[in-house]
């Protein structure tokens, strides 16, 4: 079966530092134990509850608070409206590829992966570009991530602690056709529409079938895992 991922020609595993402009440094730090004193400690040694709660949030959660309130259903609605869009005979010509090439992210991933010029994305596998485009249209690209390489995109979710094995509506689902659970084996990506409760999921995917956006039913046995954008709506 055709693999629907963009495979970089150079430095395939160099993904840890590229996180769509979001740092994964741990927020805040542990409070040192206070010595036993007769007098109460000074107020500046205590962290107010609101500040402590903020420090406990991940960078992506903090970023999500700055973004529009968007629900999983709103993202799925955007994806569904693209159903039927098809690539041309050369495997390109979609608005998802054109958008990605015009974005600053294309130069970043090209520098990371190698492989020529930005023009190479014009007819490259576009399933990850489709997912990225939907996140951009919804206004939550910083917590959806953006990439043309499925493996790097999945690793971005995992590095940001937004990765798991539950099929939630609106989750980004990653597939390996051979049933592998290794992120490095990922072949394809789409959105979960629903868990059908029978070992399958309904999805919305780009670059599927004969190079189209389509709704599909997939066995969970082909799922590597799920990335969870942060929905606040």
UniProtKB/TrEMBL annotation:
The keyword Signal applies. Residues 1-32 form the signal peptide. This is CHAP domain-containing protein. It comes from Streptosporangium subroseum. It comes from the Bacteria. Residues 123-207 form the Peptidase C51 domain. Pfam families: CHAP (PF05257). Keywords: Signal. Coiled coil: none annotated.
């Amino acid at each position: 079966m055709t693999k629907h991922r963009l495979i970089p020609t150079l430095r395939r595993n160099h993904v840890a530092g590229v996180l769509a402009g979001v740092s994964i440094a741990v927020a805040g730090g542990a409070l040192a134990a206070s010595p036993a004193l007769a007098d109460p400690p000074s107020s500046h040694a205590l962290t107010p509850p609101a500040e402590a709660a903020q420090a406990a949030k991940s960078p992506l959660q903090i970023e999500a608070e700055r973004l529009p309130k968007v629900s999983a259903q709103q993202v799925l609605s955007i994806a569904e409206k693209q159903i039927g869009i098809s690539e041309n005979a050369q495997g390109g010509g979609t608005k998802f590829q054109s958008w990605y090439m015009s974005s600053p992210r294309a130069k970043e991933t090209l520098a990371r992966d190698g492989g020529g010029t930005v023009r190479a994305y014009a007819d490259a596998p576009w399933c990850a570009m489709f997912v990225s485009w939907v996140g951009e249209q919804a206004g939550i690209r910083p917590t959806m991530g953006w990439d043309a390489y499925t493996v790097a995109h999945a690793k971005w979710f995992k590095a940001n602690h937004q990765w798991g094995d539950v099929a939630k509506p609106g989750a980004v689902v990653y597939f390996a056709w051979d049933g592998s659970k290794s992120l490095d084996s990922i072949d394809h990506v789409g959105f979960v529409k629903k868990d059908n409760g029978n070992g399958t999921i309904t999805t919305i995917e780009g670059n599927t079938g004969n190079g189209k956006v389509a709704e599909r039913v997939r066995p969970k046995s082909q799922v590597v895992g799920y990335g969870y954008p942060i929905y606040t709506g």
